[in-house]
Amino acid sequence: MTKVAFNVLAILNIEKLPLSPRQSFIAVVSGLLHDCCDKKYMVEEEGILEIRRFLEEETTFDRMEIKMMIQVIGTMSYSKVVANGIPVMDAYWKPIYHVVRHADLLEAYDVKRCFQYNRHAYPTENRKQLTNRVEKLMKVRVWKYVKDGHIFYPKCVEWADQLENKSRFQLGCLAGFLKGHEEGFRAGVEIAKRRRIHL
Ligand SMILES: [Fe+2]
């Protein structure tokens, strides 16, 4: 989750968005907290309650800020947006929402993280099955973020392209390793080509 907060900082830097220091601070904290209510890891409602308690008792954010941060965190995930669309927000909160959301989407290109999550979610599956899950998720979802308009900030589009290349290569290496090739690097490239994963 610190990775998402780092991504928030990086996006603020590269996109040169006109966020005030307060908005930037809110975006970083939202990025830090957002996984604490991710239904992949916990009961979402419990996570939201815990985030609310933390923000109310241990920070100086005011009531309105806390309400809106929880709205940002609770509506920004890919699955929520696909199901419900982008929520209507005013000009102050909209850029905060999109920065945190971009930061979260960019984290999804991490093959290792995706593999680890799937191992946690499907503990009985072997590496090959898990690798297939990662590849499928990348193909049907992550590598389409730009094309489907989820990632649209211009520098983030470039960043996503680089991350996509890296993840395609890593996935190729992983597939090569699983096939028992000694030189994972070369095997990765070959397998990536064969699977039409363009490097
Ligand atoms: Fe996330």
Structure in words:
The protein has 199 residues and is mainly α. It folds into two domains: 2-107, no CATH class; 111-194, no CATH class. Helices cover 69% and strands 0% of the residues. It is built from ten helices and no strands. It has helices at residues 2-15, 21-33, 44-58, 63-75, 78-84, 93-107, 111-121, 127-140, 154-178, 184-194. The radius of gyration is 18 Å and the shape is globular. The model has no long low-confidence stretch (mean pLDDT 90). Fe (ii) ion binds at residues 4, 34-35, 38, 104, 107.
In short:
Helix 2 packs across helix 4, helix 2 crosses helix 6 and helix 9 crosses helix 10. 69% of the residues lie in helices and 0% in strands.
Q: Helices and strands, in N-to-C order?
A: HHHHHHHHHH
The number of E-state strands comes to 0
Counting DSSP H or I runs of 4 or more residues, the number of helices is 10
How much helicity do the residues have? 55-70%
**Low-pLDDT stretches:** none
The shape is globular
Present the secondary structure layout:
Elements: H1 2-15, H2 21-33, H3 44-58, H4 63-75, H5 78-84, H6 93-107, H7 111-121, H8 127-140, H9 154-178, H10 184-194
The protein binds fe (ii) ion.
Residues 4, 34-35, 38, 104, 107 line the site of fe (ii) ion.
